[in-house]
Design goal:
alpha+beta; four-stranded antiparallel sheet; four-stranded mixed sheet; about 170 residues; 8 strands
Length: about 170
């Protein structure tokens, strides 16, 4: 199976945000943020906000700003910089997948990885992620694959013996 793809900064940032906000620490952070927003609204509506200590009021407001503005902005800058500094990410890549290996060919590099070296594979709504370890991964966007190629890739993955984290619903 062979597929050619090229992702842009926007696609990369969307992928990285979707992966970041699945982590327990970010889920906890956002739930805490929603709790603080609820408490802020409640204390303002009941007139209790002005009776809170000044440091408590500042803390609530600053945490809300950090959780919903500063943290996502820092991630956005980090993801954009990662895309800009890694020239290979934005190149046109031809991926060849066989029963033995996955080969990525781009303008500046060629990479071939045997199935037994892959740690796990995750299938998301719009992506296939090929993890080399718990952190680093290669990817293949589904938008550049035909329905037949997606089915063929799923078969190759299942036959490879690699841990396959597939969606519970058919995508």
């Amino acid at each position: 199976m062979e597929a050619t793809h090229q992702i842009n900064s926007k696609d990369y940032v969307k992928l990285m945000f979707s992966l970041a906000y699945r982590k327990p620490v970010f889920i906890f952070l956002f739930l805490s943020g929603f709790f603080l927003v609820f408490k802020l609204i409640d204390s303002i509506a009941t007139g209790k906000f002005m009776y809170l200590e000044l440091s408590t009021r500042y803390f609530i407001v600053m945490m809300i700003i950090y959780i919903f503005i500063i943290s996502p902005l820092m991630l956005l800058i980090r993801f954009r910089n990662a895309f800009k500094t890694n020239k290979g990410i934005g190149e046109k890549i031809t991926t060849t997948i066989t029963s033995e290996s996955i080969k990525h060919s781009a303008e500046s590099y060629i990479s071939e990885i045997e199935w037994n070296v892959i740690h796990k594979i995750r299938e998301l709504k719009s992506w296939f992620l090929f993890y080399h370890n718990n952190i680093s991964f290669g990817f293949l966007p589904k938008k550049d694959l035909s329905e037949e190629q997606i089915l063929e890739l799923r078969t190759l993955i299942r036959n490879s013996g690699v841990l396959y984290d597939m969606p519970t619903k058919p995508v």
